[in-house]
Amino acid sequence: MRHAGKTVGTHLKFDQFYLEAAKMAIDLYYTPGSAPCRIVLLVAAALNVPLNHNLVDLRAGEQLRPDFLKLNPQHTVPTIVDDGFSLWESRAISRYLVNKYGAGSTLYPEDPKARALVDQRLDFDLGTLYPRFAQYFYPQIFGGALADDALLGKLNEALEFLNTFVEGGEFAAGPGLTLADLSLVATVSTIDAAGVSLQEYPNIVRWFEKVKLTVPNYEEANGKGIQQFKTMIKNLVPKSEL
């Protein structure tokens, strides 16, 4: 009986541990095919920050539900809720996670110049690379538009910039893995999955392979979402050609 009592007590302790861990986890509202959502997944994996995954079906309009609008009036994903604190925009979330949970992490260096370089790369991804991809590719998939050579040219120009940024270096913003790499790899993997060739950009290809091998839990955090993105493309392309 004594042994049985110890066993029950042990189970209770484990149950309490997992309940407490669940309470500590951050709520993430996301869709896996989204590159910005995968940025947050990559950062959380790199920091070993637990997440409660809440799928949001954008095509079904779940982002417009009143309960979600209370969390994020812009009704965008990714959105996190950390102990009652709501935040959206993937790069802002990434910085927040490092600032709060990444003490001593080199993902977002404290040196002003090193941090500024990471910020520049993040802003380049947010303001140039990803928008140019979206402007070129999404009208074809969601609107049935024909490929626009001028928009493809602007995307290729952005890829040329990135090819220069990663020339001669292991990573996008210095000698080590940073938030810049996690953000950019989500975008570049999406561009690659969409069938835009990267072969003209050897520095990007080298960097891309390096990051995939370096990022913690890359396949779980990004690879699975890329497969879902490919499935979405496959399902939507026939409709756009009707």
TrEMBL record:
Top-rank taxon: Eukaryota
Segments forming domain GST N-terminal: 24-105
Domain GST C-terminal, first and last residues per copy: 111-233
A Pfam family per the record: GST_N
InterPro entries referenced in this protein's UniProt entry, alphabetically: Glutathione-S-Trfase_C-like, Glutathione-S-Trfase_C_sf, Glutathione_S-Trfase, Glutathione_S-Trfase_N, GST_C, Thioredoxin-like_sf
Coiled-coil segments on the chain, per record: none
Record family assignment: Belongs to the GST superfamily.
Subunit and interaction comment: Homodimer.
Name of the molecule in the record: Glutathione S-transferase
Species name: Iphiclides podalirius
